[in-house]
């Protein structure tokens, strides 16, 4: 891993001298000298920049830097956190984009095996493919949640781009992808063909308006995620003011920070990437917003509660709801009041999952089942499991 990493820049190291005591910059373990990584003992989070944007459809040959985001993040004060943070510095551009993705995969995979959560700052969002491939050696199916105004499916037969990398996740071996969800898509940015393909693959998609009407609907989806990727252009332009931002509509700063905290609270999320941040912010507040998104994710992780030990019935209330020929089994946590629905294991079909599993759901979906409405997430998960 160390061979891929460049230290944090001198300008950031100089900034440390001016920061007040107690700020994050005074507490983070920093890769400050080439080839010398600080001790990982007690580290839960690792900031990792990936300075690659050559697969961006709007690539103009510009180099990118994450200094402004580090400056903003280092200046914040931590919450009541019990975990340490390390800044590993950056992965520089390789000879090819494929080389950069390989370096990202290897570095992230090493961190995952150490049970350290990578906090990725990236250029083009095609780098999320490297984030996904880092799970190849972990031997399990994974769920990817993308906070984006586009599906980014594209044509898997065409070259990589930051708008067409998810198709590669679907068709490339090894087949690790169980579910892909998009939070905040905007219909006019997505072709009817892509919308239809999302439905045929039984993937989940929530419109921007659905989420802004009730931000809490994202919680079950994020609770079931292993990988969270976030396209910064899903934030409305007036909030971010980036040169590559294109839409007046999108999440506002409060909404995106709430989503980030939900991602952190999830006991399952093990990597978090913010992409499309290669453009220069016209205001310092844009960099500060990215820093606060990271802050809220870390805050969420520090408030994780283990409530998914389903072997102990003392921690749950079980509800069985008959619908037509099915009996749906719901479980409610006594500790957090979060809900799950059982996805049964059927022995005589080709299951992607090797045992029964419980899908996060909402209390509203339980009430719907009581009114003879089968939850859509249960139907999609069952179809995917048996395809």
From TrEMBL:
GO molecular function: hydrolase activity, acting on carbon-nitrogen (but not peptide) bonds, in linear amidines; metal ion binding
InterPro entries in UniProt: Ureohydrolase, Ureohydrolase_dom_sf
Superkingdom assignment: Bacteria
Pfam families: Arginase (PF00491)
Entry's family note: Belongs to the arginase family.
Name of the protein this chain belongs to: Arginase
